[in-house]
Write a structure and sequence with these properties.
98 residues, alpha+beta, three-stranded antiparallel β-sheet, 3 helices, globular
Length: 98
């Protein structure tokens, strides 16, 4: 996301959306969906006017073929982001259990 603010929402059984995170400029959203090739249980909604770039699976495949070093750097950045998010999740679980 280049600019703006987006809320990450989880739809509960009661069909009410629960905001689980708010992200701003420089953040990524939807990367898990692309790599897992399946829908994520959460959705995103722009809270304010936002500029968001989209990288399709097709464009990523093209990057891997035509610019493999750029694709490797991109995937390393995604891996780092996912590891950081997982670490934060573990910390939150620990906080909730104590």
């Amino acid at each position: 996301m280049i600019s703006g603010q987006v809320s990450i929402l989880l739809t509960r059984d009661s069909h009410q959306d629960l905001r689980v995170q708010t992200i701003g400029s420089g953040s990524l959203v939807g990367e898990m969906d692309m790599f897992l090739k399946q829908p994520h249980p959460m959705s995103a909604k722009a809270d304010v006017s936002s500029t968001v770039y989209c990288l399709s699976s097709k464009a990523l495949s093209q990057m891997q073929r035509e610019a493999p070093q750029a694709a490797i750097a991109f995937q390393e950045a995604i891996n780092s982001l996912l590891a950081e998010r997982l670490s934060q999740t573990y910390q939150e679980i620990d906080r909730l259990l104590h």
